[in-house]
Design a protein that fits this description.
9 helices, single chain, Rossmann fold, 6 strands, 220 residues, alpha/beta, six-stranded parallel sheet, P-loop_NTPase
């Protein structure tokens, strides 16, 4: 089993979008479970419920090889990870705050992604995670990668933010970034991934994300 955590203390950075995208696409390659640790908001759990409805409405098995569960605290999460130890992929969608659940995800995951939207506020908020990452590394090795979301390449702001990330965070970033596209918002509300919509640019970004994540996990 490979476990991927998605953590971010700043709301609106695209954490649940990234988690549901990973779960939806990885389920096409193996048995996958998505655990929503952001209760009671439960965006990822709601996404899965809508995805199951899409099976009926569209006559396609979107939720085949995919299940979803929730964890309200770190003890529940530890138990759920043990419960699903025989699946191929486990995706953990963390809470939007510093919490024991966030710490647990860092320790339990083989790879943690930190989505960061293209704004200084999100970069500043992400700096709060750094101490948790260092704490987790004292327990076990964990790969952590930043993922740009709502990314607009070749703009002055983006260039400034890239420099700020290197200065403030020191986190390695994925080569893949997710652009500012309506497709991601539509997909989340429809129980789909952006790769399942008609937007070719979003499809390419999602394919690149999945391949890069799989490559990182192969080295674990």
């Amino acid at each position: 089993m490979k476990t991927i955590g998605v953590i971010q203390v700043k709301g609106g950075a695209g954490r649940s979008t990234v988690a549901t995208t990973l779960a939806g696409e990885l389920s096409k390659q193996g048995k996958t479970v998505l655990i929503d640790c952001d209760m009671p908001q439960g965006t990822s759990a709601s996404w899965f419920a809508v995805r199951q409805q899409s099976d009926v409405k569209q006559g396609q098995l979107f939720s085949q090889n995919l299940a979803a569960d929730t964890a309200a605290n770190h003890r529940e999460l530890v138990a759920k990870v043990e419960q699903y130890k025989d699946v191929d992929y486990l995706v953990l969608d963390g809470p939007p705050r510093i919490a024991e659940l966030t710490r647990a995800i860092l320790v339990l995951a083989d790879l943690c992604l930190v989505p960061v939207g293209a704004s200084k506020a999100e970069i500043w908020a992400t700096s709060d995670i750094l101490s948790l990452i260092e704490e987790a590394k004292q327990v076990k090795p964990v790969k952590v990668r930043m993922l740009w979301t709502r990314y607009r390449p070749q703009t002055k702001l983006t260039q400034e933010l890239t420099a700020l990330v290197k200065q403030e965070l020191g986190l390695a970033a994925l080569d893949t970034s997710l652009g500012m596209r309506v497709s991601y918002m539509e997909a989340l509300g429809d129980g789909l991934t952006a790769a399942e919509l008609a937007d070719p640019s979003a499809k390419a970004e999602v394919r690149s994300l999945i391949e890069e994540v799989k490559k990182l996990m192969r080295s674990i």
